[in-house]
Amino acid sequence: MMNSINYFLLASDELSTFGSRSISIVDVKKSKIPAVVPFLTIANQSLLEFRSALERESKNPFIKIQNEMDHVRNASFLSFRSGCESAASRTKEGFKAAGNTLLDVIIKQGWSAQALGMKVKSSVFRSIISEIRSKHAAELALTGLDELLDELETAQNNFEIAAQKAVDAASANNEPTVAETRPKLANSLRSLFQIITLQEISAPSADVTALIASINELITVSMTTVKASSTRAENKKKTDESKITTTETK
User: Fold this and answer.
1) Which DSSP category does 183 fall into?
2) For the whole prediction, is pTM greater than 0.85?
């Protein structure tokens, strides 16, 4: 049975690497499993288009600004989330309930939103901001976290402005962008994996079993790497915040 993979969690360079390794693994077995060949061809073409788009965007001056704005909004989100956790642990009347209410929104919408792909992340951040402002203004005011939410919203707005400029610059060349080629690559990989899974059902063989085992190993390693990167980023932020707090109290 093929493991599932959340492509949204993969950064563009990680998706490129995952796609390349997946295609290489399947390519070795294609002579023994001919049904995969058409899907393998499509996936390989999608990977080439995606990599070309990545190469073009690496030369786009607005991409660097967009990435910087993405880091800022990640930091703002983690600051707000930490603030909610802090409020939920306080003994002052009303703070625990209010903090937990805000945390419930974050948990529902996306606790680890900072690790998502840029487009999905934007949607999650917007949903968190909108729900809290429209339904939990009282809790926000009580905990004094409105300033941190303002910072998150500002960071999100700045990211969207930068992202649009990057898209406009890429579109001026009339060539496919990363935003356009990324879902095509993900979908072609899904189709490739799906036909392999169907082969396991309709025409099981040692080659199919070995192929699925190899792909599952790649998926496990890729997801572990993504989660480890997210954990390191959060730990670094907590360490930096601790240093700032220590400095301020001296």
Assistant:
1) H
2) no
6's tokens: 């959340």
Question: Please, is 106 exposed, middle or buried when counting C-beta atoms within 10 Å of its C-beta (0-12, 13-18, 19+)?
Answer: buried
| DSSP H or E stretch at residue 202 | helix 178-202
The string of pLDDT tens digits covering residues 4-28 is 898 888 888 999 999 999 999 999 9
Contact in structure between 99 and 106 (CB atoms under 8 Å): no
Question: Could you count the other beta carbons within 10 Å of the beta carbon of residue 69?
Answer: 21
* Rg of the chain taking only CA atoms, in angstroms: 22
Answer left, alpha or beta for residue 94, where phi above 0 means left and psi between -120 and 50 means alpha. left
Contact 89, 100 (CB under 8 A): no
Instruction: Using alpha carbons only, give the angle 209, 197, 16 rounded to the nearest 5 degrees.
Output: 95
**C-alpha angle 244-246-250 in degrees, rounded to nearest 5:** 115
